[in-house]
Amino acid sequence: MEHFTPTDDQIRGQFVSSLMNYFKIEEDVFLRSHIDELIRPISVTRYSDFLNRLSTRPLAFKTGIEKIALIAQELLEEQLSPLAKEAQERTQKLYNLMYDLRRSITEERDAQLSALTRFENVKFTSIKRADSQQLLLDTLDIDVIRNVTKRWIYDYVSLDRGLFEARIEREYADLLIERERALNTQKIAHNTQAALGMKRL
Question: What's the chain's Rg over C-alpha atoms?
Answer without folding.
Answer: 24
